[in-house]
C-alpha cells in the first residue's frame, strides 16, 4: 500500500476524523479542556452498551472453549496491544489463572510495551509467527484489538487463528472494519472522532479497556473463578492480598477471625477451600476433593457437600 493509499484510508475512518470545532482547543483554559474531555468520555459506556449482545455472544463462546482447556489470547499493536497485555497480566493475581491461560501479544514484543517498535504493526506475518510460537489449538480464543480495525498485525492474527480452527473475536472502533469482518465475532464500538485528531488512546482506548474488562471478567465468572462478586480465586502474593483473602472468607461465611485463620491454615491459604471448610463443615482434604470434582466451582462443590 502506498503512502497516498494509506492516507486516503485513514481519512475515511471515524476514529481519524478532524473536528474543526476543536481547532482552537489549545487556546482554552485548562478547566474548559478538562470539561470537554470529560464530556467526550461520558459517551463511551453508551457506545459499549450498544454492542452488548455481540460482546456477550463472544464471551459465552470463549468461556465454553476455556472450560475445555483453551486459552484467551489478545493480539494488537500500540495502545491496543498494551491494553491486551495489561488485561492478561492482571488475570493471575485476580483469578489465580496460570500465566499461560490468558496471554497478551503486542506487535514488536515486550519492548513495544514501553516504546514504539517501528513497522511491527504493519506485519501480519509477525502476528502469524507470534501465534505459531504459542502452538494454537481449536480450543483457543484469539481476540484481535485495533481502534482503526485495519491494523495488519491484529487482522493477520485473527485470520491466521481462524484458519487454525481457533475462535476469533475482532474488537474495533470503526464500522465495517476489516478486523470485525475477519473474525467470527465482530465487536465495533464506534465512539466517534477523538478530541485530539487520531489519538485513539483516548475514547477508543477507553472503549477497548471496558470491553476487555468484560471479556476477561465475565469469562472468569463463567469459569467459576468467583463466588457471587467475591474473588475467591485471588492469589495471596502480598500482605494486601493476604488481608483481602481473610476479608473474602469473612464476607462469604460470616465466621470470626479465629475460625478463618484455622480454615485458611487447614486449606493451605486457598480461599475457596477455606470457605468450603467453614460452610460445609468439612476438613481441608475433603474440601480440595470436592472442588476438584466440581471443576473448581465453589457453588457446585457446596451443593455436593450439602446434598
Task: Describe the protein in words.
There is one protein chain. The termini are far apart. It contains 15 helices and five strands. Strands 2-1-3-4-5 form a five-stranded parallel β-sheet, with helices on both faces. The model has no long low-confidence stretch (mean pLDDT 93). The longest helix has 20 residues, at 203-222. By secondary structure, the protein is of the alpha/beta class.
Give the SSE map.
Elements: H1 3-11, H2 30-42, H3 44-49, H4 52-67, E1 72-76, H5 78-89, H6 91-95, E2 102-106, H7 124-133, E3 141-146, H8 152-163, E4 167-172, H9 178-182, E5 185-188, H10 203-222, H11 239-253, H12 257-266, H13 271-280, H14 284-293, H15 298-306
Helix pairs in contact: 4-10, 5-10, 7-8, 11-13, 12-13, 13-14, 13-15, 14-15
Largest beta-sheet characterization: 5 strands, parallel
Task: Show unreliable segments.
Answer: none
Order of helices and strands: HHHHEHHEHEHEHEHHHHHH
Q: DSSP helix count?
A: 15
* Strand order in the largest sheet: 2-1-3-4-5
The proportion of residues forming helix, as a percent range, comes to: 40-55%
The separation of the N and C termini measures: 65 Å
Gyration radius over CA: 22 Å
Label the structural class.
alpha/beta
Overall shape: it is globular
Please state the average pLDDT score. Answer: 93
Number of strands: 5
Work out the strand percent: 5-15%
Quaternary structure type: single chain
